Amino acid sequence: MVYVTLILAFVLIIVGAMLLTDGSVAVAERFKVPEFIVGLTIVAVGTSMPELTVSFMSALAGKGDMAIGNVVGSNAFNTLFILGVCAICSPLTFTKSNIRRDIPICILATLALLVVTLFNEDINRLEGCILLLGYIVMVVLMIRAEKRAMKLNPQAQPEATSDTPTKKPMPIWRIPIWIIAGFAGLIWGGDLFVESASAIARSWGVSEAVIAITLVAGGTSMPELASSLVSVLKGNTSLAMGNVLGSNIANILLILGACSTVTPLTMGDVAMTDIYIVVASTFVLMLSALVIGRDKLTRIEGLLFVACYVAYVYTLI
């Protein structure tokens, strides 16, 4: 039953995230918030909501190692497994934005994680505030950059025509229902997920941190895997790359920042080796973009990425 409960909790989290995101987007549309701002804020946070929910509920339950392990495991899963599988299906293209902005910011975020965990066994409230502030500053700077680009190149903005189908706005009465139901699904699902994962850890005879890095992290990263694979199958490989990098940045700066601001997170059984894996995978990705694959993540590199992830999980278990 514990595995059934885990699956039920995961479904509740995914459905809750979808409802909350749709309701929040509807509110933004009602207030005429520009679409690109909605994408950089509400939609971006919505895709990281499973990780945020599980980490937040773990932190409240006093299981800081599960919160940190979930983020560390998700980033390793995203970079090595998701990008690896996508590259095997079709070589992934690195855009100029990926090389000049996204990967460097991802490297800075992972280095920030390394710094705050290297000399202490916890992430305190001050460090959490710094991480969270870093995420807010990054979003503000990206919004300003988007606004500047739109002013310099107004022709790039899509214009509505009579042939363009207009999206029917969500009825006002439905918006609060969607938001409340979304929050309820996230809170209930997150609580069930943490309890089930802890029970599975005890039954397997391994630490909760290992379960968080492997099973929990893989489960909460399923939305990124699904959306990235769909993007690759549709021929939009750059979208898959941006999706993973954005998720990795949000996991460290937003999720760990928010959780440790509420309550300090203790590393517990999460080893520095796990942090080193995340840092190394990000640097290898930059190396691939600049030297190895020359603006592409090839199929061979994808196979190596997946093999590295499998070997990492094998050594943990």
Please outline the helices and strands.
Layout: H1 2-30, H2 35-47, H3 49-60, H4 64-89, E1 92-93, H5 96-118, E2 122-123, H6 125-152, H7 174-204, H8 208-220, H9 222-233, H10 237-262, E3 265-266, H11 272-292, E4 296-297, H12 299-316
Antiparallel strand pairs: 1-4, 2-3
Helix pairs in contact: 1-2, 1-7, 2-6, 3-4, 3-7, 3-10, 4-8, 4-9, 4-10, 4-11, 4-12, 5-10, 5-11, 6-10, 7-8, 9-10
Describe the model.
With 317 residues, the protein is mainly alpha-helical. The protein is 79% helix and 3% strand. It is built from twelve helices and four strands. The chain has helices spanning 2-30, 35-47, 49-60, 64-89, 96-118, 125-152, 174-204, 208-220, 222-233, 237-262, 272-292, 299-316, and strands at residues 92-93, 122-123, 265-266, 296-297. The radius of gyration is 19 Å and the shape is globular. The relative contact order is 0.24.
Number of helices: 12
Q: How would you describe the shape?
A: globular
Report the sheet with the most strands, covering strand number, pairing sense and barrel closure: 2 strands, antiparallel
Give the helix/strand class: mainly alpha
Order of strands, widest sheet: 1-4
What is the arithmetic mean of pLDDT? 84
**Secondary-structure element order, as H and E?**
HHHHEHEHHHHHEHEH
Unreliable stretches (pLDDT < 50, length at least 5) are 158-164
The first-to-last residue Cα distance is: 22 Å
How much of the polypeptide forms β-strand, as a percent range?
under 5%
- Please estimate the helix content: over 70%
